[in-house]
Amino acid sequence: MYEFTAPFQQPAGSPIRELFKYLGEPGMISFAGGYPASDLFDVEGLDAAATRAYQAPAQCLQYGPTDGLPSLKAQLVQLMARRGVSCAPDEMLVTTGSQQGLDLILRVLVGPGDLVLTEQPAYPATLQALRLQQAKVVTIAVDRDGLDVAHLANLLASGEVSRPRLLYTVPTFANPTGATLTRERRIALLKLAVQYRFLIVEDDPYGDLRFSGEPIPSILALTSEVAGSRDWVVHFSSLSKIVAPGLRVGWTIAPAAITRRCVIAKQTVDLCSAPWTQAIAAEYLADGALERHVPTIVAAYREKNHALCRALRAALGECIEFHAPSGGMFVWARIQGLDAAALLARAIEQKVIFVPGNAFFADKADASSLRLSFAAPDVPAIEEGVRRLKRAYDAAVGTSV
Amino acid sequence: MYEFTAPFQQPAGSPIRELFKYLGEPGMISFAGGYPASDLFDVEGLDAAATRAYQAPAQCLQYGPTDGLPSLKAQLVQLMARRGVSCAPDEMLVTTGSQQGLDLILRVLVGPGDLVLTEQPAYPATLQALRLQQAKVVTIAVDRDGLDVAHLANLLASGEVSRPRLLYTVPTFANPTGATLTRERRIALLKLAVQYRFLIVEDDPYGDLRFSGEPIPSILALTSEVAGSRDWVVHFSSLSKIVAPGLRVGWTIAPAAITRRCVIAKQTVDLCSAPWTQAIAAEYLADGALERHVPTIVAAYREKNHALCRALRAALGECIEFHAPSGGMFVWARIQGLDAAALLARAIEQKVIFVPGNAFFADKADASSLRLSFAAPDVPAIEEGVRRLKRAYDAAVGTSV
């Protein structure tokens, strides 16, 4: 047999995907997935877009440009303009979900041993990608206002952290914490990036999914307020959470020199993302369907979030601690008196699952933390799921038979 | 500005993609692309498959399993059975074109400085991928019967080549040479792989496109004839050349332990290839449309290949040397008396392009070589293109005003 060498000698699969085996069980209620709600997909609108796209079948069926179909890029440039960002086509690369953008960026910018900063808790696939590149990872804690930028400033000023290549963050409705970085912290972070010459890698799949409070511009949009900062921001976004993941349409906006290197890497990686679904996405956006449909998703997630937070407070009261998010798909919580992994074991018996927080830490994991996604289940399922969680909690702490 | 470090300090883009800028020129005839003929796509059959696939919209629109939609994998297992290969689902991974299979395999198997063998001339993206992984590359020459396996055996026996991790080859209708490895050499290569414990990475996108001669089983299919060899073969295939590249559906068949590592890497790379086009591909295959349609492509390529070879002999006679291929999309030739790059400069003036052979060499390039693809142009364009090539040749060697 083939003998593997590092880093694949002992591969660690996604701890979240490990939970997928429970999804098929009859009656299981899942707060575990990071999937958007299937019943909120704009099935008819996408069908119509697909029909229009196939009126130019060769564009759907032939290879496309590595950086993305021009028709789609033109629509995405307009979408970014509506989000307050002006960008040129040569700064933009269409990717197979924003996930591929992160992979490409890390491949062209980060070598073994390079210092990379990431918020923590963080998206597990990011942590896995950093391991794959054998980066040296330093974590920066997140509080309810997002990344602790003041702490980062101290680390940089003291020299405790020196010459990082980049910092990864999901500043708006973060996965897993649901937290949103304040405007003040965004500006401060941009100033640090300019001063210490590191890239801010802003992952923004959820930004349109705000269901309460005032919008805050993306870090990329705020570069106009900090001189020289545009050179230091890489921005990912995606249609996965606002249209459909099955399109696998994400995009990266970066300084042209970085984008060019990503395009060259992508020639080697997969030549191009599926032109057929790119063409469908272009038609969908050109029709204005996105703007018409997003409010439907936002209204549904507002209601589901409210249901989850209300039910958690009613059922678990002081035994659980969390901040209700202003958007996105996730509630991040800490459970009192036991580990989330122990709670999960009991929860599975009760036919409800969530993701224990350990999965989101590169170091110093908070074993009491857990992530609950309200996106997929409907309100009655959310309420029943929390009742089951309560029974699981009682069983785990021994206050119930 | 961000300062890049190796290996992306001086990125080398694809030399073939450099030629794309000429494709848009009015009246340009291209023998340069590796694209299949757009006018041979089964537009109606794929439209019907898309309609059937969308009857289960959530499967098209939601995230799918990282290793591929089960419905597609079931069809691909059947397709491989028709090609004489028995494989289990856990040996198979669906990828974004077979290109991604190569990228994943190299990422999980090859580290900086690892010794990798490749046929030469070779597919340029493979050479670029090996550079990206910083592999140490040793090339093995190809003759009209494919890879020179006897020479490889000598290198291994003498210790001149020691402990390679893997060998990359396109054994059937190779890109760029059009050559097909003989059955005897395939068996000999499998024995070497077992003896010296290296993986044969068999890239097989063109195998179904035979227009003359007797079929030869793939290297993977022949593992049944060499004890222990199945552990040492990784096989890529794709729908890009026999259905449509725009689906971006390729697949990898490898020992389960290797496949598992590729799946984990793919979780990080892009989570999954586009489920929507996977679902369309599954419906297309389930309908038997592939078997009905491939003969149409083969008949067209037979005629185009014949037209190109006949025209080249008639126009250039002794000034060009080539072997007519038995399938695939490419004629590999050597031009007498000048470099192919010099010919290309004159050819562009005459509004015809091809790929100079240099692009396909990692070392010791044969400057007189060139690759001509007959797949995309129709027969009249092929004949006119060769007339232009003749004028370019005459201009370049100075026998014409």
UniProtKB/TrEMBL annotation, chains A, B:
What is the required cofactor set for this protein? pyridoxal 5'-phosphate
Which InterPro entries does this entry report, sorted A to Z? Aminotransferase_I/II_large, Class-I_PLP-dep_aminotransf, PyrdxlP-dep_Trfase, PyrdxlP-dep_Trfase_major, PyrdxlP-dep_Trfase_small
Look up keyword Acyltransferase and say if it applies.
Answer: no
Q: GO: which molecular function terms?
A: transaminase activity
Query: Keywords in UniProt for this one?
Result: Aminotransferase, Pyridoxal phosphate, Transferase
Question: Which Pfam families does this one have?
Answer: Aminotran_1_2 (PF00155)
Q: Where is the Aminotransferase class I/classII large domain?
A: 55-389
Q: Identify the species of origin.
A: Paraburkholderia kururiensis
Report what the protein is called: PLP-dependent aminotransferase family protein
